[in-house]
Amino acid sequence: MQIATRIETRFQQLRAKGQKGFIAYLTGGDPNLAATEDIILRLEDAGVDVIELGVPFSDPLADGPVIQEASTRALANGATWSKLMAMLARLRRRSEVPLLLFSYLNPLLVRGFARTARDAAAAGADGFLMLDLPVEEAAKNFQTLENLHLNHIGLVTPTSPPERIKKIVAASSGFVYCVSREGVTGMQQHLAPGAVKLVAATRRLTKLPVALGFGIATPEHAAAAVKAADAVVVGSAIVDRFHRAPHTPTGRAAAARWVGTLVRAVKQV
Q: Rounded distance, CA 28 to CA 79, Å?
């Protein structure tokens, strides 16, 4: 039997405690890689269970303005794949927080997918979520990840029919990510009404933990979302909060404390 990844181990621990999980998204290299490393450590201290580290990309078409602009800033400040992996390797000397790479396919193909996946495993990543890789075309990529003991996180959307959800969850490991609404990423005023139904439909088809994300921006949103799911994912709201905070240790500490309010809302459910 394979040893569990950090992601799998964390969800096993959460289940044993009867707790829900909190997953935080960051764009790697925004505002710079040293700050990203510091933010990850602060989020871990705030109680975040899993980090989604976005690989900056020039054309992030599934993302709204907040994350698009974060990618632009990261690339302008010199974030590259090699530098991102070096940062992750440094981080692993200080932290065992579960971490997956959230990426479009192009940045992973440019060096060859197998080489890129080997780089990620060597640096200490635990898995990948690939936004624009259809499950019907992913078997070879997923096998590469499995061979390297990396999770592949499936993405279920409100437009996914039941037969396709079956394919997605069957090809997934670690957890399954349900997108709460159609459209791009971004903060919303209300949780989409179909989100709970989507999570329920997905949970009927898999024993993997199911996380719910897209648009969650407040402790109230987070608490509502996690009542249906095993974990909640918060992205744009966190990216925006750290961007608007002063780019200093004090500013990052304040932003991390705000994230802690969302974490506590989830843990109290």
A: 7
∠ Cα 140 143 146 (to 5°):
155
Domains of the chain: 6-267 (3.20.20.70)
Half-sphere exposure of 153 (CA within 13 A, CB side): 31
Per-residue pLDDT of 113-142, as tens digits, reads 999 999 999 999 999 999 999 999 999 999
52 is catalytic: yes
- What pLDDT sits at residue 59? 86
Exactly one of 52, 119, 126, 230 is catalytic; name it: 52
pTM (2 decimals)?
0.94
Residue type, 78: G
> Which member of 8, 30, 63, 126 is catalytic?
63
d(CA 95, CA 68): 28
| pLDDT tens figures, 37-78 | 999 999 999 999 999 999 999 988 777 789 999 999 999 999
Percent of the chain with pLDDT over 90: 81
